[in-house]
């Protein structure tokens, strides 16, 4: 999980964002399943954000940050096409979310499902 903020934000040149620094920021909260992870991270770091907006669509959140409507925390996986004027900065600590793939039997999955799992592992740099 990473912090995104506009390149005009005072913290935009930092290598790492500390939760103490963002506790009073205008915040754009993801509304899908991501919000549970973000809320947990904020709660674990004693931050009660000033939520300005709750938005379902990831790209809408990025556009809102781009237009100086607030900052947000999003998973790294969705931050692959970021506009040049949006900064992606690591948060202090080890903040992540787990992703799982379920199948009744990995021995009996279809060839397409097997290829998909191989692709996901490569994409996430996971070793067996």
TrEMBL record:
A single Gene Ontology biological process assigned to it is: regulation of DNA-templated transcription
Provide the LysR substrate-binding domain boundaries.
1-121
A Pfam family matched in the record? LysR_substrate
List, alphabetically, the SUPFAM superfamilies matched. Answer: Periplasmic binding protein-like II
Residues passing through the membrane, by range: none
Fetch the InterPro entries from UniProt: HTH-type_LysR_regulators, LysR_subst-bd
Judging by the UniProt lineage, the source's domain of life is: Bacteria
Q: Which CDD domains match?
A: PBP2_LTTR_substrate
Protein's recorded name: LysR substrate binding domain-containing protein
């Amino acid at each position: 999980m990473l912090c995104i903020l506009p390149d005009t934000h005072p913290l935009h040149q930092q290598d790492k964002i500390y939760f103490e620094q963002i506790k009073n920021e205008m915040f754009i909260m993801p509304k899908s399943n991501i919000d549970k992870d973000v809320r947990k991270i904020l709660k674990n770091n004693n931050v009660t954000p000033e939520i300005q907006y709750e938005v379902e669509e990831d790209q809408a959140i990025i556009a809102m940050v781009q237009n100086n409507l607030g900052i947000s925390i999003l998973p790294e996986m969705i931050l692959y096409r970021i506009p040049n004027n949006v900064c992606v900065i690591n948060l202090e600590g080890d903040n992540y979310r787990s992703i799982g793939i379920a199948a009744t039997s990995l021995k009996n999955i279809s060839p397409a499902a097997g290829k998909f799992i191989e692709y996901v592992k490569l994409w996430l740099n996971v070793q067996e």
